[in-house]
Design a protein that fits this description.
The protein has 85 residues and is an all-alpha fold. It is built from three helices and no strands. It has one domain. Helix 1 packs antiparallel against helix 3. The longest helix has 14 residues.
C-alpha cells in the first residue's frame, strides 16, 4: 500500500468531510443521512458522524471545532452526539 494514499492526514480529511455533511437540522435529524440515503436518523445515532468524530478526535482535532477550510460553524460536540452518546 502506498503510504501517501493512506496517511493519517488523509484519513482526518475524510473524517472532516463526513462531519461537514452529517450535521443536525433544526429538529435534530442528520442532514447527511437524509440527503444521501433518505434515512431519518437522529444525529446522536448517526454512525457516520460517530466514526468521523472518533477519527477526527484521534488526530488531535477538537470535536466542536469546524474542520479546516470549512467556513461554517458546527454545533458543539454535545449537540452532535459527542462524548457519552
Amino acid at each position: 500500500m502506498d503510504p501517501a494514499t493512506n496517511s493519517p492526514d488523509r484519513l482526518a480529511e475524510a473524517a472532516a468531510a463526513v462531519l461537514r455533511q452529517h450535521v443536525p437540522d433544526r429538529d435534530g435529524w442528520c442532514r447527511g443521512c437524509s440527503v444521501l440515503w433518505g434515512r431519518l436518523v437522529f444525529i446522536d445515532q448517526c454512525t457516520q458522524m460517530r466514526w468521523a468524530a472518533a477519527v477526527y478526535a484521534a488526530h488531535g482535532k477538537p470535536i466542536g471545532q469546524a474542520p479546516p477550510g470549512d467556513g461554517s460553524t458546527h454545533a458543539t460536540g454535545e449537540a452532535r452526539g459527542g462524548e457519552g452518546s
